[in-house]
Write a structure and sequence with these properties.
Chains A, B: This is TetR family transcriptional regulator. Chains A, B: Keywords: DNA-binding, Transcription, Transcription regulation. Chains A, B: It holds the Pfam family TetR_C_24. Chains A, B: GO terms for molecular function: DNA-binding transcription factor activity; transcription cis-regulatory region binding. 2 copies of one chain form a homodimer. Helices cover 70% and strands 0% of the residues of chain A. Chain A is mostly helical. The first copy, chain A, folds into 2 domains: 40 residues, Orthogonal Bundle (Arc Repressor Mutant, subunit A), CATH 1.10.10; 133 residues, Orthogonal Bundle (Tetracycline Repressor, domain 2), CATH 1.10.357.10. In chain A, α4 packs across α7 and α6 crosses α7. The longest helix of chain A has 26 residues. At the A-B interface, α9, α10 and α11 of A face α9, α10 and α11 of B.
């Protein structure tokens, strides 16, 4: 039998543990019992910090959402031609995803069974829509290829970016740093893999 | 109480039901009981067709794997410059994914808990490797931008393609057909979203 650790958690450090468990077991598959075991403190100690697992979920996905929406308020997202702005937002989205990997992973995996999950999905859609609007503006400027459907391009762009949560591991041997990945996504999505012909 | 249907299944039609259940509940979370309920026939009727759920998994992922590897034997994958061949394989991969959507979805979701799952993951890696080899050959021909890491490009290309299983629904109103999606993936990945400057 393991002895319960003394509760030295803050809401912040408890969140780190919870996000790990949510990502491993899925939010639906996680009970307060699982969280208590992973944190090594009693359930009542957890309730001392948060009202329950949905509050932990809300805090965790908020961190990802705030990170993403924060990008849109940065100067690079607001000035210059739309195509430059959308490239900037793409680059920064990859950087935020890498910096907040477990939180964004959780955000991308929520499935809409609770109010918090539905709210998170709604906010995520809003973010995608903001990027779609920028792509649309760039197309109107004549800076994007005319034969590309913008809604489809948005899907594929986020498909490429969001796939990072499946395979990107910052500590992996021979791994890529945030800059390399961000640059590769922007170059591939906007300029393509082919050499200029 | 529902009456069990008379067993009019063939191994093929039973597979369709099983793949649906696997994709909904996850392979690990699916029992013979779930399959029996979804098919509306008894467990012993299912055992009349297959040895168990792992055989159904093997048949299902084989269908996806055979579809993907079949592409590599097509004339378009074998002749011409490497960059043309890899564009061909990319386009056909999207088409196979769309044509075999539930089967490829299952293939992309297996997690390696059984021998069949590990085999499927291995075959999938082999396919990715074949595409990476083509990209490498295209880079050696000078047809791909020199500043792009090939391993990273392969990951991002499959990230874009595989994201289709998350959002593409062939019957969706205002949806895209297989051709449109395949063309969009190839154009975005190889030529980029930007107009030629």
């Amino acid at each position: 039998m393991t002895t319960a650790r003394r509760d030295t958690y803050t809401p912040e450090t408890l969140l780190t543990v919870a996000v790990g468990v949510f990502n491993e077991r899925g939010y639906d598959g996680t009970s307060m019992e699982h969280l208590s075991k992973a944190a090594g403190i009693s359930k009542s100690s957890i309730y001392h910090h948060v009202a329950g697992k949905e509050e932990l979920l809300r805090r965790a996905v908020s961190r990802a959402i705030d990170g993403l929406f924060g990008i849109l308020d940065e100067p690079g997202a607001g000035r210059g031609r739309a195509v430059e702005r959308v490239e900037y937002v793409t680059r920064r989205t990859v950087e935020v995803l890498v910096a907040e990997l477990p939180y964004v992973t959780l955000l991308l995996r929520v499935r809409g069974n609770t109010r918090t999950e539905r709210w998170a999905m709604e906010r995520r859609r809003e973010f995608d829509q903001r990027v779609a609007d920028l792509l649309k503006a760039a197309a109107n400027d004549g800076d994007l290829r005319a034969d590309m459907d913008i809604r489809l391009a948005t899907r594929l762009l986020f498909g490429m970016i969001n796939s990072l949560v499946e395979w990107y591991r910052p500590q992996a041997a021979g791994g890529y740093d945030s800059d390399q990945v961000a640059e590769a996504v922007v170059r591939m999505a906007f300029d393509g893999l082919r050499t200029e012909s």
